[in-house]
Q: What sequence folds into this?
């Protein structure tokens, strides 16, 4: 999304490696994201990220205003709240 590899590495260097986990996206996740996107008027990608965070007991880290519309689905924090 416009970031260089160095910028991405810098962002991920803040996170401890044992706190990162690879997750899989299932067809059901995509269907639910589509539905939530329509009902809560948010981008499908944001709905999907929220679903993946919820299903993997993760905290969503973002400043994106759309996540306020996803309250109750996932807990969202700003990056500075975690440092």
A:
């Amino acid at each position: 999304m416009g970031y260089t590899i160095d910028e991405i590495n810098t962002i991920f260097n803040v996170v401890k490696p044992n706190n990162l986990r690879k997750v899989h996206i299932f067809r059901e996740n995509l269907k639910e994201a589509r539905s939530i996107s329509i009902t809560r008027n948010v981008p499908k990608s944001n709905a999907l990220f929220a679903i993946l965070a919820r299903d993997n007991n993760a905290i969503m880290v973002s400043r994106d205003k759309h996540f306020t519309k996803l309250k109750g689905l996932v807990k969202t924090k700003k990056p500075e709240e975690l440092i």
Remarks:
- Strands lie at 60-61, 76-77.
- The chain has a mean pLDDT of 88.
